[in-house]
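Pilot study result, target chain (290 residues):
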Amino acid sequence: MDYVLLTDSSCDLPDELAKKYDIGVLPMEYEMDGKNYKYFLDAREMSLEVFYSKLKSGIYATTTQINYDTYIKYFEEYLKQGKDILYICISLGLSGSYNTCKIAVDELKTKYPDRKICLIDACCDSAGQGYLVYKAGEKYKEGYTLEQLRDFVERYKTRCCHWFVVEDLDHLKRGGRISAITATFGKALQIRPMLSVDSDGKLVTVGKIRGANKVYEEFIKKLNRDGEDNKNQTVFIAHADNKEGAQMLAEMVKPLVKEVVVCSIGPVIGAHVGCGMLAMLFTGKRNITM
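Predicted structure:
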């Protein structure tokens, strides 16, 4: 191929799929317990088991945007080889990284006028971004040109359905997404917020679910209501240190679809949602209502 398909590690795509589809992944950084780490999809610098164990012990993590110099250095590795670039970036609605990336891309277009650099806002993050990148990877392997793949991704991201249920209300409270009172009563009543993303890629709280069993019912309801050609599609199920919940949901979804891929949510997103989150991503009609 005369171009490369790239993204960042907020996508939480399984490492084996990134390798299978030749997707380059720029690691993002986080800080925990006074140390800085890069998050690669294989979690080589800190395993996810250790990361979530630290969260449970009360050690918080913070994340940072990808800086200008990092983008310049990363992209130039390919541009110097005569490669064009298609980069799917974490949502502008959730991170300032996109704006920084755009500045870097504009600079590099001036420096390398013969090269094409296509920057796409994923309008989501985490496994939603990973799902979009996975779909792009399939077309990339089929031999789509850069322009064809750009157009495909821009169309397809409007058909990606994102559903998340968060269990750790303390992390949402800490991030300012819910009040301390809501978090306290939510935990007492076993209420879990269900979230999605709007057309700008911003997180929105769609409703509240009371009781663990209702969570699975709501996911299946969304898939049946909004899914497109379910028997022939791949569904992603992602979790933040909730393997049991993810496997339970996967077993419920498998009879309804062609394939289920279970993904782990890494530190870039895990730092903000805490332990226990479940997510489901599929192709269909975007409908962010309960």
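One observation from the pilot: The mean pLDDT is 92. A full batch analysis is planned for the follow-on phase.
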